[in-house]
Structures are given as C-alpha cells and as structure tokens.
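Extended Data, record Galectin
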Amino acid sequence: MASQWIFLEPTVSVPKLKSTSLDKPFAPGQSITFVSTSFDPIADTTVNLDSAGFYFTKDGDVFLSISIRRHQNLIIFNSRQGGIWGHERLIDLQGVFPGPRAITHVTANATKYNIAFNNSSNIHTFTKVIQGDPTGVLHFESNSKPVFSDPVITAVIEN
C-alpha cells in the first residue's frame, strides 16, 4: 500500500481556498484522508453561508463536494459540471465529529465514492455523476471562524 502526503497550498486568487494537484488521478481503489486537529461545531453567524469542506476537481468541474454547513447542521455531497451544481445529498451533521479532531476518509470505486467520518463504520455513498477521475483536491472555508484546523493534513493511499 503506497501513500502520498500532500499539502494544500493557498490559491492565488482566493486565499481561503487551499488546493493541490495530485501525482496521478484519484482513481478507483484509491483513498484520500483529511485530518483536522480541531473541529469547531459552532456556526459562524457573521456570514450568510457558513460552509467549509473539500472538492475533488478536474478542469473546473467538481467531481465530489463535501460541504460542512454548520448553520444548517448538515453535511452536503454534490458535484458541479460545466458550472452547474447537481442534486444535493444531505446528511445530519449532529454527532458526526464527536471529538476534538475531524477525520474525513474518501474511497473511490468505479461508480461511487464512499465517505466515512472519524473512522466510523457508517459509510455514506455518493454516486459518481461525472465520468473520469479527479486530478486535484481543494479545501475551502467560506467563513471568518474556521471549521477545520490550518493546515488540514492530507494523505492519498493506493489500495
């Protein structure tokens, strides 16, 4: 099992976005784990949309978006192709990150992504909408009170 540690760097145009290109596309059989040393569950009331999370990207499309929306107490899975967002899949945020750390583990297979939080045996699935494999990963925070630690530690694992 080989692994690649990646570091998400601030983007030039939007400093609250941190992204990286992967050594090779995120293909079936691979996993990516995001580890945040802290998680703040309290919503930021100073912004309209209190959102943070991760995008799996290629050529401007978002193959998988995992968005934490504290003000709605939701985690939202979605994709965006050609600038158009798809159908949101919602799960309750309550109790997903019970401890001080937040771990998000994503595994790709041929037709879906499997997502687990904090090493839970509860696996959430998101059916792939866009064909192909993402080549980049992006961490975003659209609030003044961050959800996750900085940096978020990220590892790519080939199964």
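Summary. The two ends are 6 Å apart (CA to CA).
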